[in-house]
Design a protein that fits this description.
Elements (H helix, E strand, L loop, with lengths): L5 H19 L5 E3 L5 E3 L2 E7 L4 H14 L3 E5 L4 H8 L6 E4 L5 H9 L4 E10 L1 E4 L7 E3 H8 L8 H4 L9 E5 L4 H11 L11 E3 L2 H9 L4 E5 L1 H6 L5 E2 L1 E3 L4 E2 L3 H6 L6 E9 H6 L1 H12 L1 H7 L7 H15 L1
Parallel strand pairs: 3-4, 3-5, 8-13, 9-10, 9-11
Antiparallel strand pairs: 1-2, 5-15, 6-15, 7-11, 7-12, 13-14
Pfam family, one: PBP_like_2
GO molecular function, one term: phosphate ion binding
Function: Involved in the system for phosphate transport across the cytoplasmic membrane.
């Protein structure tokens, strides 16, 4: 899922942050040589996985390269499931994920001798959007399940709630390789089959989902909060009522726990061997976590709370040995 607009959107922020980091000495990109000088770390790093985490990992790459262009980081966005497929066979160093690794994926990693460390890097608010002219402003969790559940036969918004408009429903959503899809299916809908309904326009490209919802009357879809923010001029976000009233997606409501059950953690999974054996991987990961709050801000993500950041730091320290 390529987000062709991302680089244009964040480069000014990246440049400003790079200057700030350089001024305060953040993200040391060099290692001392035997004569007391600095020898820049060089090498390549392969990252793939979640399209939701993709902008953040690209921001980390661009910021690091402002200080050390010798570390070459390739960031792909095959989806969380697709990322774990190549990570657990040793083809990548880092896997971006918008959900925790699943048992079958962990088993493949174990089978191939790929040991890893999970690092939470941000919080996201999975955002349900509708066509801006659709008079639907809030959905209960039950209505969300009636809309997207695997047993749903709803074709008109009045099938969901008789007070909703008499308007045909058009559904746009991520494909089954997406961690966003997995989260909606397993953690929001919670059906034993861990699937959503299948009669919708699926795409691994969030741009396609945005344009589909924005250009179709009665349309709805869902993706990460960051991508909604980037397209808020053409979409309307729907508040979610989990039993305590309608709550709109935002950084504040996701961090506070009010935006349930659609707030979710975002991760990078680091190959322990790559981190230990490849100085470029260590350089990138250390920089990523050291500057995590700033990188999240540049990528327009919801930064971790102090408590969660301390947990991420502790996990990284364990990886450092």
């Amino acid at each position: 899922m390529k987000r062709t607009s991302f680089r244009r959107a964040v480069v000014p922020g990246v440049a400003a942050l790079a200057l700030s980091l350089a001024a305060c000495g953040g993200g040391d990109a060099g290692a001392s040589d035997s004569e007391g000088g600095e020898t820049a770390v060089s090498g390549s790093v392969a990252v793939d996985g979640s399209s939701t985490v993709y902008p953040m990992s690209v921001a980390a790459q661009e910021l690091l390269n402002e200080q050390n262009p010798e570390v070459q980081v390739t960031v792909g966005e095959a989806g969380t499931g697709g990322g774990f497929e190549v990570f657990c066979t040793g083809e990548t160093d880092i896997s971006d994920a918008s959900r925790p690794i699943e048992e079958d994926e962990a088993a493949v990693c174990e089978e191939n001798g790929v040991e890893y460390t999970e690092l939470q890097v941000a919080t996201d608010a999975l955002t349900v959007v509708v066509h801006p002219d659709l008079a639907v402003d809030c959905l209960t969790v039950d209505e969300l399940i009636a809309l997207w559940g695997p047993k749903s036969k709803a074709t008109n918004w009045q099938d969901i709630n008789p007070e909703f408009p008499d308007q045909e429903i058009k559904l746009f959503g991520p494909g089954t390789d997406s961690g966003t899809y997995d989260y909606m299916a397993a953690d929001v809908i919670g059906d034993e089959s861990e699937t959503t309904r299948k009669d919708y326009e699926a795409s691994e490209d969030d741009n396609v989902l945005v344009e589909g919802v924005a250009g179709t009357e009665g349309a709805t879809g869902y993706f990460g909060y960051t991508y909604y923010e980037q397209n808020s001029d053409k979409l309307k976000a729907v508040a979610i009522d989990s039993g305590n009233g309608c709550v709109e997606p935002s950084a504040e409501t996701a961090q506070s726990g009010e935006y349930t059950p659609l707030a979710r953690p975002l991760f990078i999974y680091v190959s322990n061997k790559s981190y230990t054996d490849n100085p470029a991987v260590k350089e990138y990961v250390d920089f990523y976590i050291e500057n995590l709050a700033e990188i999240a801000e540049v990528g327009q993500f919801i930064p971790l709370s102090d408590e969660l950041y301390a947990e991420t730091q502790a996990a990284l320290e364990g990886l450092q040995g």
